[in-house]
Predict the structure.
Amino acid sequence: MQPTATLLSYAEWIGAAQGLFLGLLLLRMGRTYANALLAALLLAVSLLLGWVALHDAGLLERYPDLLVGGSVLPLLVGPLLYLYVRAVVGQDGRWQLRHLFHFLPFAAYQLALLPFYLRSAEAKAGFAARHHEHAHLDIWAQLPLLQFFAYAAAVLLLIRRHDQHLRNYFSDLERRQLTWLRNLVVGTAAIWLAFAVLNLAWGVHRAGALFGPLLAAAVYYVAYRRIREPQLFEAAKQPAAQPPARVEAEMPEVGPEALAGSESNPPPAAAPVRGKYGRSDFVHEQAATYRTQLRKLMEADHLYQQEGLTAKQVADGVGISTHHLSQLLNQVMETNFFDFVNHYRVAEVKREMRNPAKRHLTLLALALEAGFRSKAAFNAAFKKNTGSTPSAYKKQPLPDELDRRGEGVEGLV
């Protein structure tokens, strides 16, 4: 046995044990459908790592049935990951019979291996001793890769839609977005892609020497995030009847005119709002009233200053459902809840920057007073609304200061 192979197998065994431990911990912390799927995913990855460890330690030749049986395990990773993400974002809360469709490739592969399982022990042992010589194994190894990339693309699309959907319900997203899961999927896809490239260049066996430790590192990452930040594994779920919202690429300026309408552009009388909201009885005539109430909550009551403000809290203040508030913002005002609230927060910070009574406060302190939860969220919202960083904006002279210097406001252009 090569010393390098021994070190690799140790790292892979540790990763496999870590995955099994984390899977059991997940089930102990809460027997939810999502936790069961994540535990099953970790179990599949742990078994795969154990299989790779046996291979790198040169022990698979003693167990020829495992030699081919273990190669089918990657076909479980993509489906389990996809079903887990669907459960986390609230699209599937329980197991359904149609989910078996995702595991048909796994079952078909096992059936294809049935002739091998029926061979004699001597034939199996002979194949195991010469399995490095079978070039067709390199080709078959690509099938699980192709399947995983297809599922990875579907998972990333689910996460993107989920994170966009959150913008209709929350003013703070940092603790609700599935950023960690997106990073994990992208990182795992990169690992599989590296394996595919090296497989073509070196062959499946030499490429597997790198695949095992990288896959173990992915398991370590999940274990670290699950134990250190368990709240990240419970994404914010919305009512199942509410479809993912389309987020506008640009947010128009939200001011009194946008909220109350104007004489030159009055809202159509009693024109029902349709589209993604279906048979809603929400009409523009009602929307004008609700916009006035929404304006009062923001401009008079300063509701946006409340940290962690949600759409339900605002909808309760207006006297409408969360669904209708989303409709009002999306279709009538052409924005979403996240951008709408943070526009007001940015506007307040801009005002307070020029307030002599608050010059002793830092920009972060002003942001926290306005309702932002973190510096990163404040900087992102400020840049989106003004096109400038907070510090750069603060250094800009006021118009009256420019006038005193004889430059005029035109000097800014």
